[in-house]
Design brief:
The complex is a heterodimer of chains A (325) and B (736). With 325 residues, chain A is an all-alpha fold. Chain A has two domains: 2-90, no CATH class; 107-318, MetI-like (MetI-like fold, Orthogonal Bundle). Chain A has helices at residues 2-30, 33-41, 48-58, 74-77, 80-85, 102-137, 142-155, 159-173, 188-202, 204-219, 222-229, 234-245, 247-254, 266-272, 280-286, 290-318. The longest helix of chain A has 36 residues, at 102-137. In chain B, helix 13 packs antiparallel against helix 15 (497-506). Chain B has 24 helices and 25 strands. Chain B is an alpha+beta fold and 736 residues long. Chain B is globular, with a radius of gyration of 31 Å. Helices cover 32% and strands 18% of the residues of chain B. In chain B, the strands form seven sheets. In chain B, strands 12, 15, 16, 17, 20, 21, 22 and 23 form an eight-stranded mixed beta sheet that branches. Residues 1-5 and 732-736 of chain B have low confidence and may be disordered. The chains are: A mainly alpha (325), B alpha+beta (736). At the A-B interface, helix 2, helix 3, helix 6, helix 8 and helix 9 of A face helix 1, helix 4, helix 10, helix 23 and helix 24 of B.
Chain lengths: 325, 736
């Protein structure tokens, strides 16, 4: 297992360098260091001298990828790409263009993001699997039919509609919870209730159908027939045996997203006024803050790689036949 | 049934959390119950401020905070129009003295050409104190407690409030000088440094000295003691008096003295914040301002909430006793002579999306609101002759509307370096032809229609660059642009399209066809990248040009490329806008001053318009105080501009604001930003209204529970039926 983890870490290095390079290239195709300086210094009364000074102070006065004025290895190291990228691998994200420490900002924003994402993930998983199993339990009855119809209907509606509709009904018309905002301690509950409910419902259609499909596939396996032949009640067959054996496909889709929960949700956080990480990258792109953009994309890539590795590891836990070599 | 219990637990848990949070407060209140009757003003903000250091802060989303905290020597009168400057911390308006090259004092009416320097002598009121701040805290030996912080002493410090000791000290003239020096600080990148370096004597040299000194600093020490280096242009005359020496004559300098750029910053704060341990924890002057103003920033979480609390050390300042004739009738003088500020705390909550923001305003959780295009019809109706008024729904909630024309202009510019629309590089005849083409387009593009369709009527079609309420602007018949409008029955009426066609033919493009080549006239319109929502306005613009049979090609690009095109003079027709820094004609007319052209000079004249007669008049007007003579020059300049038509004058946007009944002393003002101190809230009325408007509606929960129970019945029946069947029968279908 240890060997496998080390190998995955080594594989991750070229991937992260590649991601960094692509981010860097795409960012600087659209924004030059001069544009970044203008954005930070303001549109009015900005002189070329002020722009040069801003670039110099922040290390954006070097060539982007290749420095022809330097010798040997310095041709590559004395560039914006190298200078801005190498520290990322030590998880030193540096400072945003407004002078704020990026790591501090990420740490502060991560908790509010998790406050929504984690309950939505856990409750959602529980609810979707339960409903999917119930639909399988009542398969081929009108309950299953109407369940599928409901799922398709839920899938067909945009997540934005759930948010706006939920806010309209529950907050505006019925005055049951605040429309948006965030609090700490017990106060947090009233702000999180609506986004969590909407988060769970908005993904219910697609996920429930997906799990239903997985379970139906398992239902045709021989061990299910054996269990029934032994006289086990149907709910035991489903919730104990089928659920356990369906874990591999479930884990494939579920474990990989766990690390990404930290990154939050752009739309939900924006509409519910949650001070999370969801909008951090978008705001940075809009303000041409390369330091934040590269930090967030790097973090996203690392978390995704961790998610994939965890998925592989989780297979060994649910299926003893799988060995990671 | 192993599945029944967990959902029950979940619902129970959610209800416990929810009900415990709700208590006696309105269930949907986003604020703590304890604050419900407090004298707190609630506002929303959409964009987080980047800089709160007065030397850097320039955006409108920043100045709404800094203007309440920092106090420059001057401010604008809250009620009087047109905008007029009055002392804030200054004991009187600055004394202005003119000197010639030899240092001899000149009379006030001296010839501008003789004036080499102007000295502004400013005296501030004694007894003004800074807000409580740890930077001032000292021990029994008069040593600053927090000026030599170590990593260990900062172990439990995460925000400014974690420092237990605070103190204050008296504001002195030295604090104003210190801030002026900070404009040249090499680490701070003040946006007005370059502009001020052209005026304040010695500022550029001072910046060079600081830049040199910075080279000898180590990485752990960011502190440059500005008091060690003298700046020629600012002098401390006594504890409460200082002077600023500027080159030549620049009457607009007074307006700059009303901006936070010239507010005092204590050296103790600069020293305190420059400690490396604090910088690492994001505790900086850019984040935790230190001022003398009515409010101090006590919570700064720009991603969620910003809180301004009344400064306990705020000096005596009183609500104005005089205003405009209509102010008394509007109840704006009820609080005349009363001590400011009225509100104890201002809570700014970040709400990025307009829908939740608007709904929270309707529920009474925000005291005021702008009007988005999606809620415009719900809020505003046009009555009489296009006058805006709130709808019945708003009236029933006691909401009122206040409007003000912004000191801004949105225009469509012609690049005068372009051969077709500018006639650049061509003979006089061709230049005349280009001018007539521009005039024809000015008539054809109907900005009355544009404002009506795309701005919900929130704008005034412009007749010149000057927006209303700016000195130099003229209203009525004498204010109309005779190139585009006729004065008919007491109103400006756009000339008929026939007039534009005549001009177009005279320009050499009869019916939109180049008479020399026979090719249709094609013009290029550069805009910043547009969303699909803007397609309609671009289509509308094409149609305006089609009235003259001119083909308009829209070249959409991102804002960086757009700016690049403008800087290089590669655009042909473009649209842009300008927000005035101060209410003076100079701040608009310089946008067409030849030496300020973008190409070659990196100035603000995006059209690269160059007219020597206009430039001479501008330079004369620029150095004059407001007077009849100055007005005459401005009139001449505007006549030249209208004749040359380097811009389609576009429109001046109109701001609409909605205010609840409990919100008092509102006089919208786009130039002055330190206005929260004048506002008053009737917190009891607000609480009463909130309770009335936000009673929880519980029947949907009961209905939902019933539906769920009803839905369970067929499931239970099906389950029982299945359990009663034989095994083969029950599972038969799955094998089918």
């Amino acid at each position: 297992m240890l060997k496998y983890i080390i190998r995955r870490i080594l594989y991750a290095i070229p991937i992260l360098i590649g991601v960094n390079l692509i981010t860097f290239t795409l960012f600087f195709v659209v924004n030059t260091p001069d544009d970044m300086a203008r954005m930070q210094l303001g549109i009015k009364y900005v002189s070329p001298e002020a722009i040069d000074k801003w670039k110099q102070d922040r290390g954006y006065d070097k060539p982007l990828l290749f420095n022809t004025d330097e010798e040997r290895i310095d041709k590559f190291t004395e560039t914006i790409f190298f200078q801005k990228s190498v520290s990322m691998f030590a998880f030193e994200f540096g400072r945003a263009d407004d002078g704020r420490d990026i790591a501090y900002e990420i740490k502060n924003r991560m908790l509010p993001s998790l406050a929504i994402a984690l309950p939505v993930f856990i409750l959602g998983l529980f609810a979707y699997i339960t409903f999917a199993l119930l639909m399988v339990f009542f398969r081929a009855t009108y309950l299953d039919f109407w369940g599928v119809v409901l799922c398709v209907a839920l899938m067909s509606i945009s997540s934005l509609f759930y948010i706006i509709g939920g806010q309209f009904l529950i907050s505006k018309l019925w005055h049951l919870v605040p429309i948006s905002g965030y609090g700490t301690g017990l106060d947090m509950g009233k702000f999180l209730l609506l986004p969590i409910i909407i988060g769970v419902i908005s993904s219910a259609g697609a996920n429930t159908r997906w799990y239903r499909t997985i379970f139906l596939e398992e239902m045709n396996k021989e061990y299910v027939r054996t269990a029934r032949a032994k006289g086990l009640p149907e709910q035991i067959v489903l919730f104990k045996h089928v659920l356990k054996n369906a874990m591999i496909p479930i884990l494939t889709g579920v474990v990989v997203v766990i690390p990404l929960l930290f990154l939050g949700s752009l739309i939900a956080e924006s509409f519910f006024g949650i001070p999370g990480l969801g909008s951090y990258t978008i705001e940075a792109i809009n303000s041409q803050d390369f330091a934040v953009v590269r930090a967030m994309i790097f973090l996203g890539s690392v978390l995704y790689i961790i998610g994939l590795a965890l998925t592989d590891i989780s297979y060994t836990l649910v299926d003893p036949r799988i060995r990671l070599g | 049934m192993i599945n029944i219990l967990p959902p029950r637990l979940f619902i129970l848990l959610m209800l416990v959390i929810w009900l415990s949070a709700c208590s006696n407060d309105n269930w949907n209140s986003p604020y703590p119950a304890a604050d419900s009757s407090e004298n707190i003003l609630y506002r929303a903000f959409t964009e987080s401020p980047k800089h709160l250091d007065p030397v850097q802060s320039y955006s409108s989303n920043e100045i709404q905070f800094t203007a309440q905290i920092y106090e420059p020597p001057l401010q604008y009168h809250y009620l009087k129009q047109p905008y007029s400057l009055i002392p804030l911390t200054a004991s009187q308006m600055p004394t202005v003295m003119y000197f010639n090259q030899d240092g001899f004092k000149l009379p006030d009416n001296a010839n501008v050409a003789d004036i080499a320097y102007t000295i502004y002598k400013i005296s501030i009121q004694p007894g003004i104190l800074f807000q409580p701040h740890p930077a001032f805290a000292h021990d029994d030996q008069e040593q600053f407690i927090y000026h030599n912080l170590t990593k260990q002493s900062l172990a439990n410090v995460y925000q400014l409030a974690d420092f237990p000791n605070t103190a204050t000290r008296e504001l002195t003239a030295a604090d104003y000088i210190f801030q002026i020096k900070r404009l040249a600080h090499p680490n701070l990148h003040s946006p007005i440094y370059e502009l001020m370096a052209d005026y304040i004597v010695g500022l550029r040299e001072y910046a060079a000295v600081l830049e040199e000194e910075r080279k000898y600093q180590d990485d752990d020490n960011n502190y440059l003691d500005l008091n060690q280096y003298s700046l020629e242009g600012v002098q401390l005359l006594d504890k409460y008096t200082y002077s600023i020496k500027i080159k030549g004559k620049y009457p607009q300098f007074n307006y700059w003295l009303a901006m936070p750029f010239f507010a005092p910053v204590p050296w103790e704060a600069e020293k305190f914040y420059s400690q490396s341990g604090l910088v690492d924890k994001n505790i900086s002057l850019d984040w935790y301002p230190v001022g003398t103003g009515p409010y101090m920033l006590t919570e700064n979480n720009p991603n969620q909430i910003m809180v301004l609390t009344k400064n306990p050390n705020f000096h005596d300042e009183f609500y104005p006793s005089e205003g405009m004739p209509e102010d008394d009738e509007k109840g704006l003088l009820v609080d005349a002579g009363k001590q400011l500020p009225f509100i104890d705390k201002v809570v700014f909550s970040r709400d990025k999306e307009s829908i939740p923001r608007w709904n929270k305003f309707l529920q009474g959780y925000y005291d005021a609101s702008g009007i988005g295009s999606d809620s415009f019809d719900q809020a505003v109706q046009l009555v009489g002759q296009g006058e805006a008024s709130v709808t019945d729904a708003m009236i029933s909630q006691g909401i009122r509307l206040e409007t003000v024309v912004a000191t801004s202009t949105y225009y469509m510019g012609f690049n005068m370096l372009d051969s077709v629309v500018g006639g650049n590089g061509l003979d006089h005849e061709a230049k005349e032809s280009a001018r007539k083409l521009r005039q024809a387009i000015s008539i054809a593009v109907d900005y009355e229609e544009y404002v009506s369709i795309f701005a919900n009527g929130r704008g005034l079609p412009a007749h010149s660059p000057l927006s209303p309420d700016i000195s130099g602007h003229r209203d009525g018949e004498e204010g109309i642009n005779p190139v585009v409008y006729d004065w008919v029955n007491g109103h400006a009426k756009r000339k008929p399209i026939k007039a534009a066609k005549v001009l177009l033919a005279e320009a050499g493009y009869p019916d939109g066809i180049d008479k020399e080549t026979g090719a249709p006239l094609v013009l290029y319109f550069d805009v910043t990248a547009r969303s699909s929502e803007d397609k309609s306005s671009l289509d509308w613009m094409r149609k305006q040009f089609q009235k003259l049979n001119i083909q308009l090609v829209v070249r959409s690009t991102d804002y960086n490329r757009f700016q690049d095109k403008i800087r290089k003079g590669n655009a042909q027709i473009f649209e842009w806008g300008w927000n005035a820094d101060y209410p003076d004609a100079e701040n608009f007319l310089f946008l067409l001053h030849g030496p300020q052209s973008k190409v070659g000079n990196d100035g603000q004249n995006a059209s690269n318009y160059n007219n020597s007669e206009y430039d001479l008049l501008f330079e004369e007007m620029n150095n004059m105080e407001n007077s009849a003579k100055r007005q005459k020059i401005i009139d001449q300049m505007i006549d030249i501009l209208r004749h040359d038509s380097p811009w389609l004058w576009g429109y001046h946007p109109k701001d609409y604001g909605l205010y609840h009944a409990w919100y008092k002393n509102i006089k919208p003002n786009r130039i002055s930003h330190n206005t929260i101190k004048y506002l008053r809230i009737d917190a009891d009325l607000r609480e009463q209204q909130r309770k009335e408007w936000n009673k929880p509606v519980l029947w949907p929960i009961i209905l939902l529970a019933i539906i769920l129970i009803l839905a369970l019945i067929p499931a239970i029946m099906t389950y029982r039926r299945r359990e009663q069947k034989s095994g083969i029968e029950a599972n038969g279908r799955s094998h089918a």
